[in-house]
Amino acid sequence: MVDKPVAPTPPEPALRSQPSTYAANLDENIKFWPALLAYLIAVVNYVEEKVAQALAAYLAGSVNPGDLAGQAGKLIRVNEDEDAVEFFDDPTDRVADIEQTLSTVGHRNKIVNGDFDVWQNGTSFTGTGFTADQWYLTKAEGSVVSVTRQTHTLGQTDVPGNPKFFARWSRSVAGVAAGTFQNVMMEGVSTLAGLKVTETFWIKASAATELAVSFVQNFGTGGSPSTAVVTAVPGTLSLTTGWQKVSVAVDLPSIAGKTLGTNGNDYLSLVLTRPHNSPNPTADVDLSRVSMVEGDATGEADPTTPRPPEIERALCLPYFERVPFSGFSGVAFTTSGVRVSGKWTPKRAIPTLSLSTSSPQFAIGTTTSNVGSGSVVDFSNHSTVGGRVNITGFSGLTAGQPAFGENGDHGLLVDARIIPS
User: Fold this and answer.
1) Most buried residue, 222, 230, 288, 396, by most Cβ within 10 Å?
2) d(CA 364, CA 358)
3) Which pLDDT belongs to residue 372?
4) Distances (CA, A) of 296 to 100, 268, 320
């Protein structure tokens, strides 16, 4: 007997305009999705059982006992001609199919920020480092490279799903070695290990050029981890000036017998490589709609399973976050320094902190003060969920006065990203 399911209570929305409740409400919103999934599956089971019970009760006594042989476990329904009843299989298989479909909605794609919607730390980058959230650019020796956010033409149909943005990987000087652009979202080298996976993306270039695709299973650092395993897609991709779909299925190696590092920073990465001596080596390369899913999905038009923008951003926050000082409060502890505390979205590891601006602004008592660029910042007292920051460089403060962070681009860059090695 299936109990009548009870709908989960939707959580309060997570609003950046309410920093005191943002982190807690965001956590509750993320937890709400599995509860909603379980509720929907329970509804399917409940409805199927009630329909079967009603039909069986209505037709009780109208079926010849001799017709029951070999029908164990089956249910009864009215046939399409509506002039008789017929047996049919238990709908468990259909429930399983629904459960499988629901369980993969929004979570099938292992790439985070594959539509390049999240750019927390800017929209134009040069040199080696992170660019769009979870995307890392490597500058080869002697090269001049950049990654910038670009906007799709409204209503375009070359790339499915109506993505808003794409990334442009530019190289004005090719240098003497290959450069890479990679997604390092997939924390945990066990992700998809030993399975067939399909990588799909849309790509074009400003002139015909070439690109190589590979996957890196990195076992992290600390202790004596195993050497990273690289699985290369055979050959190179020939890029043209028009958007083209690339979809390749590969078998990722098993990690049985491997050793993880002790620092908890193992990962699976998608790596795009541009040889320095490829045709038109200084062509711009545009990348959009990137996905990586389990199984052979090369026959699908678009394996990307869309996620709401707030969920995509939430998946980035355990790695990196711009945290405004507007949610921080504390006290002036000297005539030249303030000590404030605040929280951020829980991070995957103890983050490193830096200022988002060289002149953070605080309200001290009834006045507003700016910290100059020569100020000293102490980030030594923090955890994965928040911490205390000491900032000196003010003048004329009264010790003991309350200090509150001001609105605007004044805050912290909280960074727990895995830097590829």
Assistant:
1) 288
2) 18
3) 58
4) 16, 18, 32
| Burial annotation 254-286 (CB, 10 A radius, 16+ → b, else e) | ebeebebbeeebbbbbbbbbbbbebeebbbbbb
Axis-axis angle for helices 309-316, 19-58 (nearest 10)? 120
Residue 378 and residue 406: Cα distance in Å, rounded? Answer: 19
Q: Which two tokens stand for residue 18?
A: 């309410």
What percent of the chain stands above pLDDT 90?
59
Give me the pLDDT at residue 67, please.
62
Considering the four listed CATH numbers 3.30.70.920, 2.60.40.10, 2.60.120.260, 3.30.479.30, the one that applies to the domain covering 124-306 is: 2.60.120.260
Q: How many residues does the chain have?
A: 421
Of 3, 26, 44, give the one whose Cα is nearest residue 313: 26
Which tokens belong to 244? 């083209």
Query: Could you tell me what percentage of the chain is helix, strand and coil, using 3-state DSSP and rounding each to the nearest 5?
Result: 15, 35, 50
pLDDT-derived band at 61, boundaries 50, 70, 90: low
Domain segments of the chain as ranges? 19-104, 124-306, 320-415
Who contacts 317 (Cβ-Cβ below 8 Å, separation ≥6)? 26, 345
Alpha-carbon gap, residue 252 to 267, rounded angstroms: 13
State the Cα–Cα distance between residues 162 and 164, nearest whole angstrom. 6
What is the sign, positive or negative, of the torsion defined by CA atoms of 371, 372, 377, 382? positive
Helix (H) or strand (E) holding 230: strand 229-232
Nearest 5°: phi and psi at 38?
-60, -40
Closest-CA residue to 196 (of 123, 135, 247):
247
**Ranges of H-type helices in 216-329:** 309-316
